[in-house]
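Researcher: We're reviewing a set of sequences before deciding which ones to prioritize for further study. For each one, I'd like a predicted 3D structure that I can look through quickly. This is Adaptor related protein complex 1 subunit sigma 2. If possible, include the structure in token form so it fits the rest of the review sheet.
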Amino acid sequence: MILRQGKLRLQKWYVPLCDKEKKKITRELVQTVLARKPKMCSFLEWRDLKIVYKRSVEW
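Model: Here's the predicted structure for Adaptor related protein complex 1 subunit sigma 2, in token form for your review sheet.
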């Protein structure tokens, strides 16, 4: 789940990666997702991966 400020609330990794690599990937993905229109689907093909995300609205 991604907040509007670009913070990641929930994430699940299925392959082991070092923290530095996770941060880099997370930063790139958050920028990509936030650049998409809200009405677009929540599935994204990125590099050789399929990403499923949900935008969260903070009250």
